[in-house]
Amino acid sequence: MRLYWDLAWRLSGILISVSSRPCLSFARGTPDMVQLLVDYYGILVFLRSLNEQLGSNFSVNGIQAAVFAVVALSLNSDAFMSETIRSAMLSVGAGQLEACYSVNMTTRQALFRVVLPQAFTVALPPLGNSLISLLIVVALIYWVCCIVLEYLFGC
Fold first, then answer.
1. CA 132/CA 129 separation, integer angstroms
2. Cα 90 from Cα 74, distance rounded (Å)
3. Which residues, 6 or more positions from 96, have their beta carbon under 8 angstroms from its beta carbon?
4. Partner of 11 at 20 to 30 A CA spacing, among 17, 93, 128, 132?
């Protein structure tokens, strides 16, 4: 029975890894404005088709555009930050882990006492850059919203 659970655990990890690669590639390879438009119109179409298939009457017209902007920015920044953290953890040398194992540390202890502190110092500057680019994108969204409001209401 343990073999089946172990096999299921490993396969689920493989499926999650394989399914997340195209999403990360899309989020890192397209401009922020394209992602905003795809999320805004794509999620609306997806929810409407889901309503038709399930026969529910969930109103998708009441969802504010700010929700879609938050979703799009979250997915975009998560894609870049996951790559930053992955590369920071890979930057810690294999000799560090071997040294931890030689002094009889468990993998968890080695991760929290040696690998993560060193990876944090490597990842901090790129994460700061991600924060700055996120502020720039929020300013872009605000600018687009002001233009749309000016067009709609003639302010």
1. 5
2. 24
3. 110, 114, 115, 118
4. 93
Cα separation of 73 and 91, whole Å?
A: 27
HSE on the CB side for 116, CA within 13 Å? 7
Burial of 35 (0-12, 13-18, 19+ CB in 10 A): buried
Question: In residues, how long is the chain?
Answer: 155
Token output for 135:
């502020």
* Whole-angstrom distance, CA of residue 73 vs CA of residue 36: 8
15: left (phi over 0), alpha (psi -120 to 50) or beta: alpha
Crossing angle (nearest 10°) for helices 65-91 and 32-54: 120
pLDDT in tens, 74-127: 888 888 888 888 889 889 988 988 999 999 999 889 989 999 999 999 999 999
| Angstrom distance (rounded) from CA 122 to CA 153 | 48
- 13 with 118: CB under 8 angstroms? no
Instruction: Specify the higher pLDDT residue, 80 or 63.
Output: 80
